[in-house]
Amino acid sequence: MHGDTEGDVDLIHAECRIVVRNPNGEAVKEHALVNGSHSGALAHLAHADGPHSICVHCEPQGWFTRHKMRWSIAFDILGVGFMGAASPDPAKLASMAAFKGAQSGIELLLSRLTAISSENDYEKTFEAQFVKTSDAVNVDIAAFRLMEIVLISGITLFQIAHLSKFFQTACVGALPCMPMFKRSVA
After folding, report:
1. What is the C-alpha to C-alpha distance for residues 39 and 43, in angstroms, rounded to an integer?
2. Any idea what DSSP says for residue 81?
3. What pLDDT, in 10s, does the model give residues 54-99?
4. Residue 59, H or E segment
5. Residue 124 has what pLDDT?
6. Which end of the chain is more exposed for a tag (fewer CB within 10 A), N or C?
7. What angle do CA 140, 141, 147 make, to 5 degrees?
8. Each residue's pLDDT tens digit, 124-145
9. How far apart are CA 93 and CA 42, in angstroms?
10. Is 151 left (phi over 0), alpha (psi -120 to 50) or beta?
11. Which residues are within 8 A (CB) of 167 and not within 5 positions of it... i.e. 6 or more apart?
């Protein structure tokens, strides 16, 4: 069986699936049509003789939305009971290469997920190390600022004390306005 679908509207708004049922009415094969895979080949090997039914179900994803879709399905029936005069076109038959494409796509997706996961782990460890280093630098800067304030205050007090002693011992008569000026009583 070979199925090609052509939609008048974008299939983003509808979820469609193809269901193959055996003569007993049991679903033996189900294929979901997702975005980007609305054309291709689907193969089914019947295990029982009799009429098989193929159903196409489309459910809209939005409220009160009804979209008309155009479907084109071609069947290539092979087997013991095949009575066709012309042989089927091998280019249109489902092949292992079509399935390998899907498998390689899944493997590519898994490798991308692994790469994203490892990149996320690296970013988490790098961020944790950065936060730890940043906190350590901030503590060092705060300690340096505190030490700087203590040293500047000590030097300022030292200079004020020595300057006041200098003015007291120098006893400059021209500076009677200074608070440290002592008038001598004679």
Report:
1. 13
2. T
3. 888 777 666 776 666 666 776 666 655 555 545 556 666 666 666 6
4. strand 53-60
5. 96
6. C
7. 90
8. 999 999 999 999 999 999 999 9
9. 9
10. alpha
11. 175, 178, 180, 181
